[in-house]
Structures are given as structure tokens and as C-alpha cells.
Amino acid sequence: MCLSSEPHILFNFDFYTIYIISNYDSTSCFTCLDDTNYSEWALCIEAELVCKGLWTNVIEILVDTEGKTDANIKKKYETKLGKQSATKTAEAQTEMILRVDDSQLSHIWSRNPLEIWMDL
Question: What is the pTM for the complete model shown?
Fold first, then answer.
């Protein structure tokens, strides 16, 4: 187990467990992605990225589409994409790379965490 102190929050599901060490610097332990556990891994890594503020506008870019043309939606999406923080993008990429087995590294060819997410 990779815990160095008592966890503050514990999520215990049937097949996996998520431990969070602190409210400010969450470090959780869950099985790395391999050929057999994508569903569980995806849930855990999404929770990890959300906790660290690396999901919204890094992996998931939301654009209000109501009453807008396709061109307007595309423009707003590209604007948000262009405003992504280089630091947050690198942090999200790093979190995903560190949470996969070596056998999955061949799927990670991009520096863009959204592309990595889609490829995995």
C-alpha cells in the first residue's frame, strides 16, 4: 500500500479502493490501468483529476450550445481550448502517465490530456 499516513476519506467499492491522504494535497492509491481494468481505472482517475482541479477545462471542455450555431460553438470551444493553462495541462498529462502500466504507454503519444484520455 502506498499510504504514508491515515487517510481522511476512504471510498471502498467492490473491486477497488480510493484513499485520499489530505484535503489539500490529495494522493490516492488505485490500480494502474492495464488490459483488464479500464472501467474502474477511468472512474478513479477522473475522481483524482477532479480533486486536483485538472478535469474541467483540461480534459472536459464545456461549451453552452443552446441557441448557438455550429460555427459559434466551435469558436467558443477553440477559445476555451486556447486558454488552457500549460501547467494544468502538463499536470493532467503527468497524472495519467503515472497511473498506467508500461503496457499502456504506447497509447500515450500526445501531450494533450484530452487526446490521451480519448486514446486510452
Answer: 0.65
